[in-house]
């Protein structure tokens, strides 16, 4: 049918690629040792390649193989990758195998990204929050090839991801249904999968990896490193925000500040009689520091973006709390959890490295192109939201017939970094970084006009209650301590703001500074967390000190 | 293990339900005639039930069965339903089987919803945009039971949805992984599925329906009904918005206004030399009125929320354009397409029934509780967006180091309805409806401060260019014709706004009013669309006039 041929160029193209690689394929399988040759046959210069370079699990066998293809045959690839986290991701650019990249996060590799950009070896399509990047995979950035990662496959190519389902179904869907080629690395092939996370109808090729896929315990925070100012801040958040607004559904960013909050719920929160009244439903990875709150009956549900190394058995033993499959293990899903975190919960709280006088914040610092991860998606007021909850309505300060609520977007920041550098600054480093890197807009993580509350060790600025931009700045300055911004605060003005409830110091919230001690933490080290879990939590060796 | 029992109450509860229904279950299957008895055994009073009650396909066998259960046994259910579209959905409330509902749209049943609410027989949890409702299914509204719909199942319970995948995977995921029970009605059981859309690991029970599931051609607009003012408006949108801002990725709402735009691309758009420059990548259902643009080579890709009755063969024959499976048929996915429409495209354009002086709009009118559908999600500026595109950056009017772009949110409205009622009004009916129904906030569909452009038959108001709220109102008044709002326009002020490009009349855009004739439409009736498709489009009988 010629008419059909005219409209199925993609199918024909896929068939040609598969034909070229036929030598290396038997029963939809590529032998481990043949992967480089197979990739050379399947890929073409300029291809858009979605590499599972995830926030957590890594298709590292495939990324290492890709870094070994002959750049004369395969070059100028356009990489779509959530998280640039492994050295070989950037080797691809050094070798010319890849040329352009669209990504969301580049934590550990952010220095090298900036360097390669300066050297003209890497071109940035755009930097995203996670789900924007996936969104564009269904619009104008459909992958030609997806290199993904699963725990197991069966003979027909069904995949079991285990607890780290994360982004795999989304990337595979974007590729498979637009005549792209889906290649999955698996740790092993088994006769029967514990459950099917991705049907074989969506998978073209399976290859057994040389070793199990890499995954890092990114969400584990050792309570040993929580210091007393963080305990104080956590107490203020619990009293001044969670209790005050009746926050039942929420997301916590990663960090010691939010870990402190999690560890205060069963102690400080319990004493305040808040169990069942706040913090019931979570969009969150299985943070080990949430174990004491779960064990104390605080937590009704946790939906997860991904999993966390060492938490597998614990999660499996708590199916009332976590989303788990018929096989018993966690089902995570980054897109759906980001959606839950955007539209389904009332509060986002995260820490930042820099905040300006208008509460704009960024974790980008000079010489690093770190990206955004999930924070911009959860740390903004979702204007498409139409349902009301009590906490959301509480933030409706304007009146009039078209009043609506506002998400609680809370930024935590200590006024000074350890080295004595102020964290509340005149101008974000992000602006300079954006200019130097030729970015069309500055890489701001969370915009000040979305932020409802800023919390420092000095107090809380209820920015949503401030009238006008100038008063917002005054409220922020009032809790900015001895930073240049803080020194601008006028004590008389601050007193008025406190009287009006636009600013609160610990004493205004009934939080006793002297009480802010590490002894309030429900767990003071990893060993305590293991004990709370009844031995179900199995921390990775690096976190063990006993 | 007693410790385990303490934390797996949901699993135990599910097992008890399944045990109660054991008589009616063989090999995960319920016989067609046993469904009412099985539902009576499986359900419990107060259960949260997600009923697929979709925007398009309907699990109508299951909803009819649910309406027949004994209210003495099953009552006070909490219904989670995207779209209240079938009479029996409300019979559930009349009978007391259901009591509370969370929903997104209630088009055809909106009168009855309002009536039942007034009678105290129905309680509204909240009204949502689609993906908010799904988001909460992963937070605090996890379903106990999901009643879903597929085309086929195989013996082990894998499901094939066919082109109307829509919401099924999302609802099933929320239910299956939180120890809920997933019951799927299918048209038939087959030996081998064309493809697997939902793995059997996620499905508990399958029942063959008494007849194929119901689905309505909601997105079909017969070009016969497009009138010349709509052609004029469409010409203005193409010149004054799509060409002007270089809009390559977009979503169109349903309606004759947007159908007119689709039908002008291959004629008017072609003459302007815009093919390849605008309207390449779409987040859209397979609108029949898009066929001429596709056939003329305008469209690179279309990702779909759902399918459209009659478009199956056409879509199957155009795999370069649509997302299709290895079996050849469409793969739709409402969550992912809403995500694409929110974060992945530059423009949303939709028609509204009422617009106020500040460009707030709603399709809610007195006595009807229609809900929102997908418009609020796509018709707002997504503040979590961090990537730039030329069109998005064009709307950055402010300056300064933290400038960012803005989504193009375009509202189309004719100044008067057919009966002579003004469509641009002092106060939205939605405000009155909200008050009367005791809703916490007025049911506004799109908020004025998100709207970048308003287009009437008089011209375009480039609201994003207006300086301050007062000037926005003046710009809108300038194109509001003879409505009370329009009569307020000061001609001298309008002249200034036109000179500054804040308002444009057709002549300012080089659009000749006299040219705005139906003869510009690439198809003037359904038969033309069929001809464009080479006979592949098979319109439902009601649309046939030949």
Automatic annotation (TrEMBL), chains A, B:
Source superkingdom: Bacteria
InterPro entries: MadA, NagB/RpiA_transferase-like
Protein name as catalogued: Malonate decarboxylase subunit alpha
Organismal lineage: Bacteria, Pseudomonadati, Myxococcota, Polyangia, Polyangiales
GO molecular function: transferase activity
NCBIfam families named among the record's database cross-references: mdcA
């Amino acid at each position: 049918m010629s008419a059909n041929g005219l409209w199925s160029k993609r199918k024909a193209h896929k068939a040609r690629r598969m034909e070229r690689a036929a030598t290396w394929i038997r029963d939809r399988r590529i032998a481990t040792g043949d992967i480089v040759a197979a990739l050379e046959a399947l890929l073409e210069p300029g291809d858009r390649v979605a590499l599972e370079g995830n926030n957590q699990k890594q298709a590292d066998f495939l990324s290492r193989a890709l870094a070994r293809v002959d750049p004369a045959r395969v070059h100028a690839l356009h990489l779509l990758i959530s998280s640039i986290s492994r050295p070989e991701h950037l080797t691809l650019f050094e070798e010319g195998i890849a040329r352009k990249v669209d990504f969301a996060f580049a934590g550990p590799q952010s220095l090298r990204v900036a360097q390669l950009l300066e050297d003209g070896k890497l071109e940035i399509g755009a930097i995203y929050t996670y789900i924007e990047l996936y969104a564009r995979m269904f619009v104008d950035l459909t992958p030609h090839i997806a290199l993904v990662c699963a725990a197991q496959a069966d003979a027909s190519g069904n995949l079991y991801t285990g607890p780290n389902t994360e982004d795999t179904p989304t990337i595979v869907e974007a590729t498979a249904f637009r005549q792209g080629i889906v290649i999955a690395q698996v740790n092993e092939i088994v006769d029967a999968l514990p459950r099917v996370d991705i049907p074989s109808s969506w998978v073209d090729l399976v290859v057994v990896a040389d070793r199990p896929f890499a995954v890092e315990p990114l969400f584990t925070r050792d309570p040993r490193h929580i210091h007393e100012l963080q305990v104080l801040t956590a107490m203020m958040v619990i009293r001044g925000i969670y209790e005050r607004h009746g926050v039942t559904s929420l997301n916590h960013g990663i960090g010691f500040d939010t870990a402190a909050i999690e560890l205060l719920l069963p102690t400080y929160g319990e004493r305040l009689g808040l169990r069942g009244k706040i913090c019931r439903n979570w969009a969150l990875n299985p943070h080990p520091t949430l174990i004491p709150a779960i064990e104390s009956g605080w937590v009704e549900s946790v939906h997860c973006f991904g999993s966390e190394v060492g938490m597998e058995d614990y999660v499996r033993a708590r199916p009332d709390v976590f989303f788990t499959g018929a096989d018993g293990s966690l089902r995570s899903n980054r897109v759906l959890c980001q959606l839950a975190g955007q539209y389904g919960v009332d509060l986002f709280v995260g820490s930042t490295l820099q905040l300006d006088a208008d509460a704009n914040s960024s974790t980008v610092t000079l010489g690093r192109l770190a990206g955004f991860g999930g924070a911009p998606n959860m740390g903004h007021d979702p204007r498409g939201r139409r349902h009301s909850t009590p906490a959301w309505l509480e933030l409706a300060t304007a009146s009039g017939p078209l009043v609506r609520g506002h998400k609680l977007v809370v930024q935590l920041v200590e006024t000074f970094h350890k080295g004595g550098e102020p964290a509340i600054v005149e101008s974000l480093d992000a602006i300079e970084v954006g200019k130097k890197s030729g970015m069309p807009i500055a890489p701001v993580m969370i915009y000040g006009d979305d932020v409802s509350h800023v919390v420092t060790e000095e107090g809380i600025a209820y920015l949503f209650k401030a009238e006008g931009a100038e008063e917002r700045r005054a409220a922020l300055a009032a809790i900015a301590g001895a930073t240049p911004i803080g020194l601008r605060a006028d004590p008389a003005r601050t007193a008025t703001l406190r009287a009006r409830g636009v600013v609160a110091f610990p004493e205004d919230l009934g939080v006793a500074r002297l009480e802010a001690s590490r002894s309030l933490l429900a767990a003071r080290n990893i060993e305590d967390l293991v004990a709370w879990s009844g031995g179900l939590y199995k921390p990775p060796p690096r976190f063990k000190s006993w």
